[in-house]
Amino acid sequence: MIRLSKSVIGKEEVSAVTNVLKKGFLGMGEEVQQFEQLLSDRFCRPVICVNTGTAALQLALQGCGIGVGDEVLVQSLTYLASFQAISASGASPIACEVNTENLTIDLGDAQKRLTKQTKAIMPVHYSGNPGDLDAIYSFAKKNNLRVIEDAAHAFGSLYKNKQIGSFGDICCFSFDGIKNITSGEGGAIITNDQSVIDRVKDLRLLSVSKDSDNRYKNQRSWDFDVVEQGWRYHMSNIMAAIGIEQLKKFNSFQEKRKVLSSLYKQFLSGVSGIELLHIDYTEITPHIFVIKVKSGRRDLLKIGLENCGIQTGMHYKPNHLLKYYSSNSLPLTEKLYNEILTLPLHPDLMESDIAFICEKIKNIL
Length: 365
Ligand SMILES: Cc1ncc(COP(=O)(O)O)c(C=O)c1O
What we know:
With 365 residues, the chain is an alpha/beta fold. The chain has two domains: 11-245, Aspartate Aminotransferase, domain 2, CATH 3.40.640; 251-364, Aspartate Aminotransferase, domain 1. The protein contains twelve helices and twelve strands. The relative contact order is 0.18. The model has no long low-confidence stretch (mean pLDDT 97).
């Protein structure tokens, strides 16, 4: 079976975790501070690590004071996590259409959904591509909105030669098991807004005031105060130890993801019945490789590939079709949902695997 995605873990991660286990400080401590420092050096901005990308998004919203009664614009075609993070903050996700060429948020559609309650926009960097971020930031400025970038797919991507995460309002990454780097599970919030940093730093530790500084020294606070609802969302030393090792390997992971995606592009360009997303792999570090299959043949191709031992996926079921988030129909998103197919992509794949997969696609179609 050629897997759709997988964690790529070596002896370095095993030994780093073993060292943490031997030291006996498994929770949040020195390793978390070290991982945050490495990320902060990379992006030249403050970074706070948490236990998932979903938690990062939720805390980013709460950190901006967004909650009950507020609305957040977000594309419907995203992982459930983007929607759940918004509703967990108390705000309402407002489902928007996407641009067909790259599946990032359609600002024309978002414009129509603005109300007095709209407080933020959450652009999702689908498959690692931030789309037209300049347009998103000018839309936000014009309408007085915070921007919380869901960059779960985009670790390592560039926008106009700048790293995603190194600029903009608030950027959130995910380090779950199959992301561009992993810490087992995990996430990060990156922003220059010191008030957001100070708030999320406490929020992740049940809102215990200034507990992070004690935790970094493998200690904890005994006498403290709490001024708002917090969450048990901190990262652990075990997770951070994995993340530190993955960061060292990132350049090779990145190169492999780019090479494999460029090969897919080369082999599948011009194949009748298939459309590729418009993505420039010199800038983008892809997390997933998604194609559009035309003429109602997506399911046929999916089954055909599975019969050849090739796992595929569908990123994603649109959230406005879920009972909990149901809203008016989004015709473009619903059409795309019937066309999208995700092909295998992870650094352990070989170039010959991509050639094999593309050959099977051509045969089946
Ligand atoms: C687009 C998107 N947003 C948010 C998340 C949430 O990240 P996590 O799984 O780390 O909670 C994911 C993770 O898969 C994702 O793909």
